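User: Fold both of these, please.

Assistant: Here is the first one.
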Amino acid sequence: MKHFKFKIFLTLLAIIAASACAAITFSAHHVASGILISLTIPLFIFITQSFINKLINSMSSFVRGLEMNDTSMRFEADPNDSELFEMAQSMNRITTMYLKNKRELETRKLYYDRILRVMTHEMRNAIAPIVALSTDMHDNPDNYGEPERKEAVEIIKSQSEGIKRFLDSYHALTHLPPPEQKTVEAACFFHKLQKSISCIEESIFTRKGIVEYNIGAETVLFIDERLLSQVMVNLIKNSLEAVKDDPNPSVSITATRSSDRSLITIVDNGKGLPNEIAENPFQPFVTTKKNGSGIGLFLSRQIIRLHGGDIRLHNNPGKGLSIHITLPTQ
């Protein structure tokens, strides 16, 4: 814009100079020359006005587009007019950023709307037996002797604990701390993790050695170790549970590095995701496990995204599941 301002300044200076020259010429009684010089003044005024009009028209179109929520509009300018061309490129970048932010907000709204619907459904289902039982106990106390009261209290306790677990899960989703990332050698990270994984292996198989590690020697991760450990324990535990009925259970973890990304892959030879989960595996509060919360995959993806990475699943029904996690190296 400094070049644009300089052009305006020069044209205004030319108008002032032409006016001064014309005045001097007229005062010297050179009428013809004075008239000729005066004719250049409207030309300079026209040039100045065209500069300003281009700027105003571009800005007006840009503001109207944002006002009308039109994120598809693009601004063109003559590449030879460097100032206006640069301004048009900036406005196009702003429009692109606006569209990206709008999509992110819409996506978040859909997620939270979905979470709210699921929460409402689950809470109603959990509270309904408590309300019905407590109401019946209040209205018909004579129907409840000591055994019946004890049974009723157990039901209320069980349902209340279920509600608390559900609310704890929601709290975990909505109160994730920002990751404190640092560069960590992948081999060191998985070596620390191996003890926790071994305990999970023993609890499911009463033995170790189900999980195989293939960690690249030069692989580094830019991570919050505590948060990523939470992700890996959850995902590997899921894989171990998926292969517990297989005669030859296998879970393989691979970590490699490209130029600017690290890739972690978890592959198991289980049965893959069930259809009701595979359609939308990251939907929260949906689970086939008896005591599952249904937030494991959703929470894992949130943590990976907070790291600036991504997670993808490749489901092979009857053959297993592969999980691919990409993370930045710095």
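And the second sequence with its predicted structure:
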Amino acid sequence: MRKMEETKMDVKRQQVIQQLVTRGIFKIYGKQLYELPLYSLMKEYYVRVS
């Protein structure tokens, strides 16, 4: 079985999710963070941090 390599986008997505979770955000628009695309996560992150 082949190993799946993580891309830079996967790593960035995981970092944003981790930062949102440390701020107490577990759901956005009624969905779990891991279900959302990176764009939605980044948008929410910048709105909450700024």
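The helical segments are 8-22, 38-49.
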